[in-house]
Amino acid sequence: MTQSVAFVASEADDAQEALIKLTGRYPHVPPDQADVIVALGGDGFMLETLHQYLDRSVPIYGMNRGTVGFLMNSYSEVDLIKRVEKAQLTVLKPLKMTAVRVDGSTVEALAINEVSLLREKRFAAKLRISVDGRVRLPELICDGALLSTPAGSTAYNLSAHGPILPLGARLLALTPICPFRPRRWRGALLSEGVRVKFEILEAPKRPVSAVADYTEVREVSAVEVAVEPEMGLQLLFDPAHNLEERILAEQFSP
Description:
Elements: E1 5-9, H1 13-25, E2 36-41, H2 43-52, E3 60-64, H3 80-86, E4 88-92, E5 95-101, E6 106-111, E7 114-119, E8 125-131, E9 134-142, E10 144-148, H4 156-159, E11 171-177, E12 188-191, E13 195-200, E14 208-212, E15 215-217, E16 220-227, E17 233-237, H5 243-250
Parallel strand pairs: 1-2, 2-3, 3-17
Antiparallel strand pairs: 4-17, 5-6, 5-16, 7-10, 7-14, 8-9, 8-13, 10-11, 11-12, 13-16, 14-15
């Protein structure tokens, strides 16, 4: 059965050029009427697209017109509809961040890749980390820390020397960013069902921001993070190069 397709593209020149070519070649509808949305850009644009159409629960098929393209398929203008129809579905569960500012206000946001805490000024951050209500690390002096999903484990988490997680592992990676004390702590693997709480110690002196993908909350005093179990984000990948295979291959790359 032929599915109705919508095209969206980042502002990059390559993505806009691809948008013109594909909309001229294939029938298409507006995104709010489509069965499948084809996103043209890089990983950042894919994250924006997933966030933008959360309420629609529509599958997203990405084609790389950006830099890295880990969440994207290779770009080709040939037989696109057939590729979409044969694509394999991957469902991602996002993280829900609840951040409390020093002034007492609260901000909630979703993260597909990771929730990260980052120091704002020259002073190192001081964090207390609890898992399911039990303090596991009374004080972490660092540049920050992050909690990553399997889909995000090859992004910022990997750059911070965190582990790569297979999609089926049902795990989260808790990874410090430039830890000073305890210097040898390299993070933890946690069940995806846990709730992690970060408390910012000496928050007025050592301000910390919390970032859920591209939503930033500055001067936080506490941040709780847990998987949002009722929400599933749908990505489509070509069978020969699906996301599970990419994550596996990344672990053997030089």
